[in-house]
């Protein structure tokens, strides 16, 4: 198992893990391919270490250092367990996560040669974000190396405020679940300029204007939810990007550096606080168990003492007047004065 991350001292030598998530078709795989190529071009000596966690991907467009498909055969899982496609993806990921400590060991071994470790996740976002295996992978990774979530959004599909809102709600739920530093990648900005999305996040009124122009049964809900999301937008990093042209790369790298800083300044201290709390709870539980044991011992020994006492009592005979207790004999040898 990889060594736990500590503050600044050794943080400099740890690569940054980038967990790429997003709705089906948002462009995750194309994004990972572009990011891998750009990082490799920027520093050929230190290319990113890339992992594919999608067992169902047919054609991988980038060279993966670790590929889930080498460990689990998704089609075999389907026939062996009699599952449908989504069940098989979930089960394959579950099987893979049981060996995740080996993945971490490999990453740790290669750490000195890489600045970034990129994870491509399954197309069906919920398979990763709401599964036990997804949580295990995310939590174990985040407690081992600095981890940042890159949430890929198809900005061309988000020009409708309702679709935009649904995507943002999903992003928000991942952020609150993982509490990890977060960057929203407004992908496909070569098709539609992402400026409108940034504006909607920064200015509540402009979003409401857009909602008002849309006659949808869900418009009222969108209006109410946008108030809730205002808080979420406050510290949100969002960047326009094109996985086809590479546009937005410099901005993305700045946001990743900033998110990595947040990992050390906010996420890690909070994680350590939680660990310390869990350790204290465990100590208290042990102390309570010990006290219960002591109480049981005392209760048992009182019981034993009482038993012993009654045994001792039974071995002591009833007290009766002595045979020598005869008034005549008592007078014997005693001078009587009439
Ligand atoms: N124009 C444009 N097209 C893109 C961009 N990114 C991805 N695409 C296209 O969007 C489609 C989906 O891209 P994928 O990378 O397969 O998306 P994905 O999220 O990995 O898909 P699943 O794993 O199936 O969920 C493909 O046709 C890509 O060529 C982009 O930045 N610009």
Automatic annotation (TrEMBL):
Q: What is its EC number?
A: 3.6.5.-
Q: Which portions of this protein are annotated as coiled-coil regions?
A: 268-300
Q: Which SUPFAM superfamilies match?
A: P-loop containing nucleoside triphosphate hydrolases
Q: Which domain of life is it from?
A: Eukaryota
Q: What class of enzyme is it?
A: hydrolase
Compartments, record wording:
Cytoplasm; Nucleus
Instruction: Name the residue ranges with Basic and acidic residues bias.
Output: 316-329
Asked if the Swiss-Prot or TrEMBL record annotates the protein with the keyword Cytoplasm, the reply is: yes
Which InterPro entries does the UniProt record give?
A: Gpn, Gpn1/Npa3/XAB1, P-loop_NTPase
Family membership noted in the UniProt record: Belongs to the GPN-loop GTPase family.
Q: How does it assemble?
A: Binds to RNA polymerase II.
Q: Mind telling me what this protein is named? A: GPN-loop GTPase
User: Which organism does this record belong to?
Assistant: Oikopleura dioica
Which lineage do the record's taxonomy fields give for this organism?
Eukaryota, Metazoa, Chordata, Tunicata, Appendicularia
């Amino acid at each position: 198992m990889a060594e736990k991350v500590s503050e600044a001292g050794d943080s400099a030598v740890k690569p940054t893990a980038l967990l790429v998530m997003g709705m089906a078709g948002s462009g995750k795989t194309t994004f990972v391919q572009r990011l891998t190529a750009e990082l490799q071009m920027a520093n050929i000596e230190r290319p990113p270490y890339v992992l594919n966690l999608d067992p169902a991907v047919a054609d991988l467009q980038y060279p993966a250092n670790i590929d889930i498909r080498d460990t689990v055969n998704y089609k075999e899982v389907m026939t062996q367990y009699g599952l449908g496609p989504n069940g098989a993806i979930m089960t394959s990921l579950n099987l893979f996560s049981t060996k995740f400590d080996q993945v971490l060991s490999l990453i740790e071994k290669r750490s000195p040669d890489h600045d970034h470790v990129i994870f491509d996740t399954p197309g069906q976002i919920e398979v990763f974000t709401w599964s036990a295996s997804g949580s295990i992978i995310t939590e174990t990774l985040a407690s081992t190396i600095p981890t940042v979530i890159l949430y890929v959004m198809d900005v061309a599909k988000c020009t409708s405020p309702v679709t935009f809102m649904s995507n943002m709600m999903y992003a928000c739920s991942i952020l609150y679940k993982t509490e990890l530093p977060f960057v929203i990648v407004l992908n496909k900005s070569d098709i539609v300029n992402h400026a409108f999305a940034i504006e909607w996040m920064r200015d509540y009124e402009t979003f409401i204007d857009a909602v008002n122009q849309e006659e949808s049964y869900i418009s009222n809900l969108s209006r109410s939810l946008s108030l809730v999301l205002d808080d979420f937008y406050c510290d949100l990093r969002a960047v326009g990007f094109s996985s086809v042209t590479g546009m937005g790369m410099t901005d993305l790298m700045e946001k990743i550096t900033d998110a990595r800083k947040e990992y050390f300044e906010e996420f890690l201290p909070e994680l350590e606080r939680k660990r310390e709390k869990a350790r204290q709870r465990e100590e208290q539980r042990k102390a309570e168990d010990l006290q219960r044991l002591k109480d049981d011992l005392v209760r048992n020994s009182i019981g034993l003492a009482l038993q012993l006492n009654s045994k001792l009592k039974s071995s002591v005979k009833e007290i009766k007047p002595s045979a020598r207790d005869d008034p005549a004999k008592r007078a014997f040898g005693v001078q009587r004065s009439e």
